[in-house]
Amino acid sequence: MTPKARRWLFAIGMAGLVACYLWAFHGLPGFGNYPGPYGPEILSRAIPETNATGVVSAINFDYRGFDTVGEEFILFAAAAGMSVVLRRLRGEREQEQDHSPADEVMHRNVAPTSSALRVAALILVGPTALIGWWLATHAQTNPSGGFQGGVILASAFMLVYLSGESIAFRRLSPVHLLDVAEAMGAGGFAAVGLAAVVQGLPFLYNYLPLGQSPGAVSSSGTIALISFLVGIEVAAAFMLIVGELLEQTLLRREGSS
Amino acid sequence: MTPHAVMQVLQVVALVLVAVGATVVVRTRERVRLVIALSAYGMLLAILFFVFQAPDVTLSELTVGAIALPLILLLAISKVRKPQ
Amino acid sequence: MTVFPFLVVAWIVAVGLYGLITSRDLIHQIVCLIVVQSSTYVLLLGVGYVTGGVAPYFYDIGRRALAVDPVVQALALTDVVVEAAVTALLLSLAVQAHKRFGTLDPHDLAEFKG
Amino acid sequence: MSQLFPLSVAVPLLVAAGLLAFRSLLQGKRHVRGLVAVAASASVAVMLLVLTLRTGAGSAYWFAGFHPSGGVAIGIDFTAGPLNAGLACLGAVLMTASMIFAWRYFTQVGAYFHVLMLTFLAGMTGFCLAGDVFDLFVWFELMGVSAYALTAYRPEERGPIQGGLNFAITNSVGAYLSLTGIAMIYGRTGALNMAQISRYVSTHPTSGLVVIGFLLIITGLLVKAAIVPFHFWLADAHAVAPTPVCVLFSGVMVELGLYGIARMYWSVFGTALGHRAAISHVFLGLGVLTAIVGALYCFRERHIKRLLAFSTISHAGMFLAGFALLTPLGLAGAALAVLAHGFVKGALFLGAGIVLHRLHSVNETYLHGRGRHLRLTGAMFTIAALGLADLPPFGTFLGKGWITDSAAGAANHGVAGGPWLAAVFCACSVLTAGAVLRVAGGVFYGLGDPPGEDPRMAAEANEEKGESDSGRQRTPLTMLIPTGVLVLLGVASGIAALLPRFAVALETAAARFQDQQAYASLVLGGAQPAHPAPLYPQVPPDVTAAAVIAALCSVAGAILLALTALYWRRLPVLRKGYEPGRGLQGLIESFQSGVINDYITWLVAGVAALGGILALVIR
Question: Mean of the per-residue pLDDT values for chain D?
Fold first, then answer.
């Protein structure tokens, strides 16, 4: 198809699609008039049933926890898929498992980073990791959860890289350990669900004590546990993703220097 | 102005910014600028979600849309800069 | 205001898809795909909004306060993860394609048809 | 039994996580890894088989124990009926077969292969059983992400990786449009559970929102099902993906898209959309168009994997036509045809995999006569090709027979269809099976004239070299046995369908699948609905003379066509410089030039066109 023909076909098609959208929006209640009943029903049950004051987390890790199992495994499959796709090409490939990835990087010239940036980045590592940890463990009370916490935890490690310590990055995130952590996070989530099945309860049933008062950090049973596991899985998956791309970048940089 | 009216103004402003942001991202063809535009777009979306009363989504959009994704993109771009 | 957020959704989809079909750079196309997906977040949060509602967190406010729909927020969160995963995988495919053929132009890549 | 619901998804996921966690421990122990993965997949197949046989009128399972209250679904549910659990079971069986096949297929099967195959399996199972539209989307995406990665498995080899990219981008756009539809429907009904949405939309006046919501939700599924004009990605993905993965793409993933469309129509939107005849015409038109386009593309293809992929597109069109008749018999026929096609097409792909493994090419022209020594493979490939041509007693014969019988009596039901559908099916079967038989005759028996030296051929010959382990002189049993078993299962499905008990059960299951009210009360009320007896058939559908004649015609036609294609140079009419299929090239390129931009343009245009048609017929 010529670009011109394509544009014309697209223009007609898109006009039709937008018309479809508008026709559908016409049938929606106006903005700000959400009619329910799903949301209000959950809002009225969440706190008495789970002792979690963060209702979104209660949905993500309890009411619709099964969605989150799928979601974690999407991330899991994507990280595994990246490892598959980015496996080094034949020419660059060393014999598998001959030496650890850290060794490979040791011999490379990494571009120098300015010392001010290094210091700033290193100083930020601690607080960032702390924030990530806090977010991952406070899903039940605050607008946070394993997902956001996990990404921030991963970015703490990325700061280590930014500080120029890419050797340290490789040491901190050897691929095997990350794989294990990721599998533990995602698999642990599924295992928490299966533990309920073993007890004769429905999958993912919230079988842990809910704690005495709503809003306490130790409240809400499996919600907090699952959020923590999701945090591990997300942090590991993101570090793997970045690590895979980083390794590619380093390989290239070496090739060109 | 009542709080509702203030909220509404904020929402309209955020929506307009998001619409403009999306257009800018799509119109940007140079790769590094594209990443910067995408990061800014993620930030705008985060603001929109905040005024939509969704702090949870705001936080993840900030961490993913404005930071993690642009970072991954940058790494990928540095990988494909020139044919070897 | 009653339909404005939804019009923005339609606009985002339209520009995202426009970018996707006119682009000759895979990286740009992947970014356009992110834009298309971002329309779904806006739509999800838009349909669940309640005028005058607060965020669904009851740590320090009364339990009976009017709140926006928490379900769409949970869905949007899931959606964000899906976006990150799909994008990462697509980028790795693009990197690989570039490595092999030295180009990211879909038209050039189509020459290597199997 | 109810615990089988979560186990059928959780087991493959946990095993996948375990394989990854113990990756370094299992380094070099490929047999342990393979055994664990095959065992997991086989156990899922058994669980789903039990679920299929025991579920009866259908059953629902609520995760985390959140049962619906007052007609509002609080949590997420899985529902199983014989049709959807059976389809998931087909997926698990094909998965097991292809993992066994892969055992010696790759020089080294990395842990990631099994991990991704198992997440793919979990995605398929979750998709089949999900009773919640957003949950459906999540499993759809898990299936998608695993499939994109598997497509690009072994990217070291020379070959077009952008097949994977085209696949991923087209499917993602479809999925996001689906999600948009889900959000729209949620904005009105405040529900994500299919039964709850169905109750809302059938008791409220049908607005544009419902029509477009339905259209957008099925867009992602139409893309997955490779229905014209959403089909372009499929052949690209098949050309790149490793052959064991192609078995799953063709045998079950495409059919899952069709299942999703049927589920959305029959469990959610059917009553609201009303106007049965109009909807029926729309889907029948799409199905027939897809069947014909797929068959034409199939016949002109020389790359065996792409050829088989186009044959899948053609068959997907026929299955869609079966669903579009909106009768229990049509749906039962489609279900049976899907089952048999899954086995037969799986066997054909595995046969192509053996050819690739032994002869290092999937180019039909290059392979001419080179497969003579692969006698067993050739025999199995040929028998499976005849199965594709509806040879009785393959299940494809009765499945398509039921569809065309139902179409012939369509006038009585006030829906689209007619005796002409049998002719269309026959023509498409002749074309696709003729192409496959041409391959079989040329490659395994050296029939036909040796092809002239094609300058492109030499370049293409080594294209696929090395996807597979090379230098072996024998075909391993781990490759031959799964292929043979799949051929046998294809025959067995047809013989089973000749038993009155099985046929009645299948048609009853189809009738229950089409009972929207019963589904809603099963899910939301938890009750097995009591039904007036006459709703369900008591007598098995006849094996009509028309169906037998049609099947024999298509077998004979396919053989004739294959021979004509092999010996066309000797035919006086065709001798003068005519090359079959070449004239189409320019026409095809004016529609699409193999770039993702074109695919997305057609996707948008297709959705808009469907929206316009639906707007006209439903008001």
Answer: 86
CATH 1.10.287.3510 assigned to domain C4-112? The reply is yes
- Is residue D529 in some structural domain? no
Q: Tell me the per-residue pLDDT of D259-270, one tens digit each, with 9 for 90 and over.
A: 999 999 999 998
Judgement on whether residues D367 and D479 belong to the same structural domain of the protein: yes
> Which segments of D22-110 does DSSP mark as H helices, in order?
30-54, 82-102
- Domains in chain C: boundaries: 4-112
Chain D: list its partners (3+ Cβ pairs within 8 Å): A, C
In the predicted model, is pLDDT for residue D429 greater than 80? Answer: yes
Specify if D116 maps to a domain.
yes
SS (H, E, C) D123-158: HHHHHHHECEHHHHHHHHHHHHHHHHHHHCCCCCCC
Say what the ipTM of the complex is.
0.92
In a domain, residue D263? The reply is yes
Within a domain: residue D528? no
Helix (H/G/I), strand (E/B), else coil: D81: coil
Question: Per-residue pLDDT tens for A209-224?
Answer: 776 666 665 567 788 8
Residue D161 and residue D55 in one domain: no
Strand partners, D363: D303
What total of structural domains would you count in chain D? 2
Do D225 and D147 lie in one domain? The reply is: no
User: pLDDT tens for residues D497-512?
Assistant: 888 888 888 988 998 8
Q: Where are the domains of chain B?
A: 10-79
With a pLDDT cut of 90, the percent of chain A lying above it is: 13
**DSSP SS3 for C49:** coil
Quick one: C60 exposed, middle or buried, by C-beta within 10 A (0-12, 13-18, 19+)? Answer: exposed
Could you tell me if B53 and C54 are in contact, meaning their C-beta atoms sit under 8 angstroms apart? yes
Q: Which residue has the higher pLDDT, D115 or D457?
A: D115
Q: How far apart are CA A204 and CA A67, in angstroms?
A: 11
Rg for chain C (alpha carbons), in Å? 19
| Residues D195 and D73 grouped into a single domain | no
Of D153, D183, D217, the residue that ends a domain is D153
Domain that holds residue D466: 154-520+537-617
Q: Please enumerate, as own/partner, the contacts of A96-103 that have beta carbons within 8 Å and a separation of 24 or more.
A: A97/D27, A100/A174, A101/A170, A101/A174, A101/A175, A101/A247, A102/A167, A102/A170, A102/A171, A102/A174
Bridge partners (DSSP) of residue D193 are D132
Q: What is the pLDDT of residues D204-237, one digit of tens each?
A: 888 889 999 999 999 999 999 999 889 989 988 8
Distance CA A119, CA D373 (A): 69
Amino acid at D28: G
Question: Are the C-beta atoms of D235 and D306 separated by less than 8 Å?
Answer: yes
Out of D21, D64, D213, whose CB is closest to A179?
A: D21
What per-residue confidence (pLDDT) applies to D275? Answer: 67
Mutate to test the interface with D, among C82, C91, C92, C107 (most CBs of D within 10 A): C82
- CA D207 to CA D43: how far, in whole Å? 45
Instruction: Return the SS3 of D105.
Output: coil
Using a 10 angstrom Cβ sphere, with 0-12 exposed, 13-18 middle and 19 or more buried, the burial of residue B52 is buried
Q: Does A40 touch chain B (CB under 8 A)?
A: no
Q: What are the b/e assignments for D175-214, b being 16+ CB within 10 Å?
A: bbbbbbbbbbbbbbbbbbbbbbbbbbbbeeebbbbbbbbb
pLDDT band of residue D363 (cuts 50, 70, 90) is confident
Checking if the pLDDT of D462 tops 80, the result is no
Any chain C CB within 8 A of the CB of D544?
no
Q: CA of B67 to nearest chain C CA: how many angstroms apart?
A: 11
Which of C2, C24, C31, C44 is the best mutation test for D, with the most CBs of D within 10 A? C44
CA D441 from centroid of its chain's CA atoms: 26
